[in-house]
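Lay summary. Proteins are chains of building blocks that fold into shapes, and those shapes determine what they do. In this project we predict the shape from the chain. Here is one chain we studied, written as its sequence of building blocks.
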Amino acid sequence: MFIIHGEYQKALEVHRRNVEISQRLSPLDEVVSLNGFALTYTLFGDIRKAIELVQQALDKYQAIDPKQLKPDFRPSFWGSRLLLVNSLSLQYEQLGEFDNALTIAQQRVQLAHTSGIPQEEVVALIELGNFYTRRDQLPLALETIQQADKLLTNIETPIVLTEEDLRLKVLLALTEIHTVQGDYIKAWETTQQGLKIALQSLDHQPEIDVLDKIRSLYAAQGNAAKELETLNQIVMLSKKLPNAASRSLALREPALTYTTLGDYKTSRELLQQSLTEAEKVKSQVI
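And here is the predicted shape, written in a compact code that computers can read:
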């Protein structure tokens, strides 16, 4: 509520009090509060302060011995901790501090291996591969994604994410690499494999993710008509997502793409819809 009305200092004060209260409860409660505090600073665009708070949360995680937790809670513990590490890497990348971002992404892989949960290591390797792709280090990207793919084939019982979820992540990462390399035939093959998996899901997000790669593929080939057609499909599916946070994020990328295509009217409409959905989320968080 405070964010919507522009009362940023009040919003920060609420989170500050939440952290103080959580310090009297447990380290895990404090981690949750610190992460919420960091998210608020991220929304305000203060990435440095967000990094500081995420690091504090990670320090709290480091003080917790996972072996002392109940076995059925450990996957959630590791999943949350590793997501924070990924958030830290992305924040450094956003600031243009690529060496720090890479170091932390590599640390996530090591930490995921330590967790003993193979699917977390697969996801960490995929994110590291995606980082290499964004930095145009394609041989390293391909090697890392292939490593994730090999590890995936040896997972007998995935936890939380299904084998199909993980396979789709690998295929999307490979599609990005092939597209950047200009190998459009391989890129098309991996998108079609991914689409078969995505269409089996009851959720629209996997299909949106695949369609976005197909849109990028058309854009790389200079096929504006097909790019626009795919973009319209993405917008239609984005509006069907079940929660406001997902809808807000899903509508943002098409809005930016319409800007590059010169359709500013549609871009403004989608950005406004994205903002409306985001305000729904903020009103629940603050």
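What the prediction tells us: The longest helix spans residues 264-285.
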